[in-house]
# Entry
Amino acid sequence: MSLKKLLIGVDLGGTKIMTGVIDREGNVCGTPIRVPTGGNDHAEVIVQRIIGSIEQSLNTIDANISEVLGIGVGATGPVDSLKGEILECPQLPNMHFFNLREAIQSHFNIPVELNNDANCLILAECIYGAAKDKKNVVGFTLGTGLGCAIVLNQNIFNGATGTAAEIWPSPYKNGIIEDYISGRGVTRLFREVAGKERSSLEVYQLAEQGDKEALQAWKAFGEHLAVPLAWTINLLDPEVVVLGGSITYAYDFFKASMEKMLRKWICPIPAEKTRIVKATLGDYAGFIGAACLIIQNNNTYYENRRSIL
# Structure
């Protein structure tokens, strides 16, 4: 491959790291690498896993770091994208205020950019996926935790401190919204109806088999998810809301109850106009969006993509 034609993206989640190489057209090159995060490990240990996954991803296409324009990292929880630091993230307790950009950049000696994983997912979907070329978009990541991202006038909205759209700790019922809309939320909802402890994946598998209690749990999940969706749609009036993350494998099981509640709660005009769609880039959206951080610079993502490709 010709010099500097590649971008590397790292999707750093609470349970897994997924790293992949893309070209400037957004095509995935080789085989993405998935490794456990080990979220409770020391920061330096997690950094070594990230570095190893980057090197492995390049090995799958017989490329080396000299061919890479830069590395983008999308990390779970709030981050300071200007400093390159992960802030306070409960899923990565030993990386609080850790400068991840500096750690990776010092090893590879190429540009590294850091942003929130939800921002990266929505960036990928805005450039290549379900919200392609839309100007005003909201994205939700449904996985180990709950993430949210906002694109206004073709730019990710980071807010005054870089933590805009961190809705996961918002008060809800007798706890926070993430207690209900997350992997543990699915476990909780199934326990409430079945009196049994199952992972979100197991609840999905049971629903596929027609288990009534699992179907009821997913129905409740959709009703709870409609709450933050209604908040953001009424507040921001987006063209599209994109739902991504690992829990969207069960989208067909919670879609109907989610839409039913939204029809009650959304103002009439956005209720007719706003589209709610499932992310189209699947598991790859996180690292594709992270890689796109390298080409965003200070322009809008769409303009900058056109200028650099």
Residues 134-279 form a domain with the Nucleotidyltransferase; domain 5 fold (CATH 3.30.420.40). The radius of gyration is 19 Å.
